[in-house]
Amino acid sequence: MRIRTAGVIAASLLCLVGVAACGDKKEDSTTAGPQASAATGELVIWADDKRSAALKPFAEKFGKENGVTVKVQAISKDQQTTFLTASQQGSGPDVMVGAHDWIGNLVQNGAIDPVQLTAEQKSGIAANAIKAVTFNGQTYGVPYATENLGLIRNTELAPAAPATIEDLVKEGKKLKAAKKVSEILCLQVGQNGDAYHSYPLYSSAGGYLFGTNAQGDYDPKDLGVGKPESIAAFKKLAALGEKGDGALKRSISDQNSIATFTGKKCAYLVSGPWAVTDVKKANLKYDITAVPGFAGGKTATPFLGVQTFYVAAKGKNKALAQEFVTNYVTTPDLAVALYNAEPRPPALTAALDQVKGSDPDLEKWVTAGENAVPLPAIPAMAAIWDPFGKAESAVIGGADPEKTITAAGKTISSQIK
Amino acid sequence: MTTQLGGPATRALPASDPEPANRRERGTSVAGLAVKIVLLGLLVSFAVWAAFPLAQDEHWVGLGILVAATALLLYAYLTPRHIPAKYLLPGTVFLVIFQLFPVLYTAGTAFTNFGDGHRGSKQDAVVAIQTASVTQVPGSTEYALSIATTGDPATGGLVFLITDPATKKVSAGDGSGLKQLPAGDVTVTSSGKVTAARGYTVLTVGQASARSKEITEFAVPTAGGAIRSTGLSRAYEGKAGRAYDAATDSIRDTTSGKTWKADDGIGSFVAADGEKLAQGWKVNVGFANFTRALTDDSIAGPFLGTLVWNFIFAICSTGFTFLLGMFIAVALHSSRVRFRNLYRVLLVLPYAMPSFAMLLVWRDMFNTDFGLINNLLGIHTNWFGGAMTARIAVILVQLWLGYPYMFLVCTGALQAIPGELVDATKVDGAGAWKGFRAVTLPLLMIALTPLLISSFAFNFNNFNAIWLTTEGAPFPADNLTNGATDLLITYTYRLAFGASGAQYGFAAAISIFIFLIVAVVSTISFRRTRQQEEVYS
C-alpha cells in the first residue's frame, strides 16, 4: 500500500513539474501578446532542397540586419500540397517559394496574399514574369527566375540550327541513316505523355489550351482542347509519331531523354535550363535555340515558368514576410545567389545583367523564351495536364487523333467546374 | 536459440491465479517501481504538453478525451487490480490512435466536399475573398513607412508614421485617420524613413514583427480607401474591391455592384448568373460523394472493369508467387540438392532489395527502345502500350518481387512437417506427387492460408506496384481517367490528387468502397480457413 502512495505522489510531482514547465511558457505568451512564437520575431521560409541551401545565407543576413530569426526549411516533395495542408492547420510557413502556376489553386484555397510592388520595382523585373504572377488583376508573388524550353543541339552532329521541325526531322533522319545517332529527336513523351514538353509543337500547329478574355486573362470557359484546331494540331503530332516519322516516341521519357542526348544517341534535345548541367558534364559542344515550329505554321511558343516568392495568408508573421518578399527579394544579390544554386535566368533585369557575362547560355535561354507564354495559373489548368498528356501519348502511338482529342476535351471540360 | 531471456524479477502470473494481490505487490522490485514511475511521469508530461495547444484553440472535446485517456491509464497502472487491462491498454490506445481514428476521420471526410477550393471555414473564405480584392487606389502615393507606438513598444497603440516621398512631409496615422506632424518633431533619413518622432516610440523590425498580426490588420482610413502597410517599410493607399455583407449573407463587388450569395449546400458564393467565386468552404454534403461514385458514368462505368482487373491482379500476384515460391522451397527441401544454402541466399536476394527502387528499374527494363527485356529477346514490343502486355508485365514484376517471400515461408513451414509422415506415404506406395498432394500440401496450407489472405489484401491495394511502373497505363483513347492496369487504389489516388486538384471528400468515399470490398473478401476467406482447419485437425 505504501509503495502505491509513493507512486501516486511521485507521479503527481512529475505532473506538477510538467505543468510548471509548460506554465512558464504560457505566462510568457500572455504578456507578449497573442503570438507566442513571434515574440522574438521569427520568419519561416519553405523552399525545395536546392533553393533552401542558397537561401540560407541570405535569410541569416536578413535576420541579423533586422534582429529577427529566420528559419529556412527544405520541403523536398509535393511542395504545393504540403504547403496547402500545413497552412490550413496553422503550421505553415510565412514565405513559400514555388512555381507561379500554383497561384490559381493557392488563391482559391486562400493560402497566399497579394503583394504590393511599386512601379519602380515592377519595372526592374522582366515583363512576362510580372504577367505570369498576375492573377485576377492582382500581383501574387515576387518572381526571381524564369525557365522555358529550348532546343539544345549537339553542334558536332548538327552544326546548323533547324529553322522548322521538318528541317530538324530531315537532318535527324540523315544522321540516323548514317548510323551517327539512334534517335531523331529527344523530346520526352513517356507512356502517359507530357503536356509541358509537347506544348511548343501543339501551339505551332495551331492548337490552344484556353482562350483569353477581355482583360487578357485565361478564360476557363473557352477550352481549346477538343476544338477543330486542336484536332488538326494532333494530326500533325501524329505525323511525327511512331506510325509517321518516328521523331516522337513513347519510349523516350523523362527518365532517358537527357541521358540519350548526353550519350550522343540523338542530336536534338527539347529541354530546359535544368538539363544544361548534365550536358556540360558530358563535355558536349552544344548550342541553345528556340524550339522550331512547323513549316508554314504558327510560332512555337513554349511555356514560361516563373519561380516565385509567396506571402502565406495564414503565416504567423505576415508583416515581416511582406517586408522580406517585397523589399528584400527584389534586390539583385539574392537573385544572383539563387542563380548560382541553379542556373535559370534571373527574373530581375539587374541580376540578369550581372550574370549574363559569365554565362552565355542565359542569353540564349531568354532568346529561346522570347515567345514563351506564361503557364496558365488558373485552377482549371490542373484538369489539363493528365488527360492532355495521355491523349498525346495515345496519338503518338497511333491512335485516331479526332476520337482521342474529343474524348480528352470532354474529360477536361467535365472536370472544370 | 535455446538461451532463456532474462525475464522480469517476478514470475509472470496468469491473471486467473487465485493468489492474493498483496503477495504480488510485495514481489515488485524497486527498479520496476522506478521504471513505472518514470514511464507514468512521461505519460503525464506528454499529456500536459498536448493539453495546452488544445486549450488554446478551444478544442474542448479533444481536451476531454485527452484528460479521460490519461486518467484511465494512470488509474489502470496505479491500482493493483485489473491485471488484464495493464496488458491490453497500451495496445488498445495505439489501436485507437493509429487505426480507428484514421478510419473514422476518413469516414467523416467522405460526407464533406473537402478538397481544393473547399478546405477551410466560411470565415476563412470571406477573409480570403476580401484580402484578395484589396488593390492600390489608382494614382495614389507610395509612402515610406515606420511603425511606431504611443508608449510601450509591446502593448502601446499602433501608429503608422508615413512620409510622402515627394514633399518629405510626415504624417501619423492611427485608427481615426491621418494627422500631419510638424517637421521639427521628426527625424527622417534620406530614403524617407522616420527614425524618431516626438511622442511616439519607433519600433525596430524585431519589435514590430512581434506585433505582425496587428500590423497587417491595421488600416488608416482615408477619403479614397485606407492606408495599409506592405511589409514594415512601405505603405500604400488601398481599397477593398469586395466586401461581405452579413445581413444578406453575400459578397458584393463595390465597383460593379454584382453580388454573390452564400450557398451553404455547396459551400460557395454563387451569383445570379451561376458564377461561383473560387474561394469556397467546407460543408457537409451528405451522401453526395457516394451517389456520385455510383451514378457518374465516367466513374461507375470503368469501376466494374477496374474491380475485376483488381481481383485478377491480386489473385495472380499472390497465386503465382506462392506457386513459384513453394515449388522452389520443395525442390530445395530435398537433402539430395547440394549447395542448398547458397541457392537459398541467392533466391532471397530480390526480397532484400528495396522494392521501390526495383519497381523503377523494372519500369525502365520494359521500355520499348532502350529496355533490357526487348534488347535481350530481340523483340520490339511496346509492353506498357497494350492492355494485355502491360498487365502481363506488372504481374511478372510482382512475381519477381514476391516469390522470395513465399519461398521463405514455405521453407519454414516445410521444416515443421515431420519427416515420418512423408516416409509413411512412401511405405503406403504413394509416389512423390501423390504424397505431396495428400500430406505435405494440406499441412502447408494450414500454416500458409492466413499469410496468403494477408498477401492478397496487400496486393489488392498494392499502390506502388502500379504507380511506379505503368501509372495505370495504357489508357483507352476515349477514357483517359481509367487505365488498363489501374487498381482501385491508384484510380482513387488520381481522383483525389490528380487531374482536377485534390478532392479528398470524394476520394474518401471511394476508399470506403475499397475497404468494404477487401473486408468482405478477407472475412469470407478467414471463415473458409477455419473450416479447413477443422477438417485437418
Automatic annotation (TrEMBL), chain A:
<dbReference type="InterPro" id="IPR006060">
    <property type="entry name" value="Maltose/Cyclodextrin-bd"/>
</dbReference>
<comment type="similarity">
    <text>Belongs to the bacterial solute-binding protein 1 family.</text>
</comment>
<feature type="signal peptide">
    <location>
        <begin position="1"/>
        <end position="20"/>
    </location>
</feature>
<keyword id="KW-0732">Signal</keyword>
<dbReference type="InterPro" id="IPR006059">
    <property type="entry name" value="SBP"/>
</dbReference>
<dbReference type="Pfam" id="PF13416">
    <property type="entry name" value="SBP_bac_8"/>
</dbReference>
<keyword id="KW-0813">Transport</keyword>
<keyword id="KW-0762">Sugar transport</keyword>
<protein>
    <submittedName>
        <fullName>Maltose ABC transporter substrate-binding protein</fullName>
    </submittedName>
</protein>
From TrEMBL, chain B:
<feature type="transmembrane region" description="Helical">
    <location>
        <begin position="342"/>
        <end position="362"/>
    </location>
</feature>
<feature type="transmembrane region" description="Helical">
    <location>
        <begin position="33"/>
        <end position="54"/>
    </location>
</feature>
<protein>
    <recommendedName>
        <fullName>Maltose/maltodextrin transport system permease protein</fullName>
    </recommendedName>
</protein>
<dbReference type="InterPro" id="IPR032550">
    <property type="entry name" value="TM_PBP2_N"/>
</dbReference>
<feature type="region of interest" description="Disordered">
    <location>
        <begin position="1"/>
        <end position="25"/>
    </location>
</feature>
<comment type="function">
    <text>Part of the ABC transporter complex MalEFGK involved in maltose/maltodextrin import. Probably responsible for the translocation of the substrate across the membrane.</text>
</comment>
<keyword id="KW-0813">Transport</keyword>
<keyword id="KW-1003">Cell membrane</keyword>
<feature type="domain" description="ABC transmembrane type-1">
    <location>
        <begin position="307"/>
        <end position="525"/>
    </location>
</feature>
<keyword id="KW-1133">Transmembrane helix</keyword>
<comment type="similarity">
    <text>Belongs to the binding-protein-dependent transport system permease family. MalFG subfamily.</text>
</comment>
<keyword id="KW-0472">Membrane</keyword>
<dbReference type="InterPro" id="IPR035277">
    <property type="entry name" value="MalF_N"/>
</dbReference>
<dbReference type="InterPro" id="IPR035906">
    <property type="entry name" value="MetI-like_sf"/>
</dbReference>
<keyword id="KW-0762">Sugar transport</keyword>
<feature type="transmembrane region" description="Helical">
    <location>
        <begin position="60"/>
        <end position="78"/>
    </location>
</feature>
<dbReference type="InterPro" id="IPR000515">
    <property type="entry name" value="MetI-like"/>
</dbReference>
<feature type="transmembrane region" description="Helical">
    <location>
        <begin position="392"/>
        <end position="417"/>
    </location>
</feature>
<feature type="transmembrane region" description="Helical">
    <location>
        <begin position="87"/>
        <end position="105"/>
    </location>
</feature>
<dbReference type="Pfam" id="PF00528">
    <property type="entry name" value="BPD_transp_1"/>
</dbReference>
<feature type="transmembrane region" description="Helical">
    <location>
        <begin position="307"/>
        <end position="330"/>
    </location>
</feature>
<feature type="transmembrane region" description="Helical">
    <location>
        <begin position="438"/>
        <end position="458"/>
    </location>
</feature>
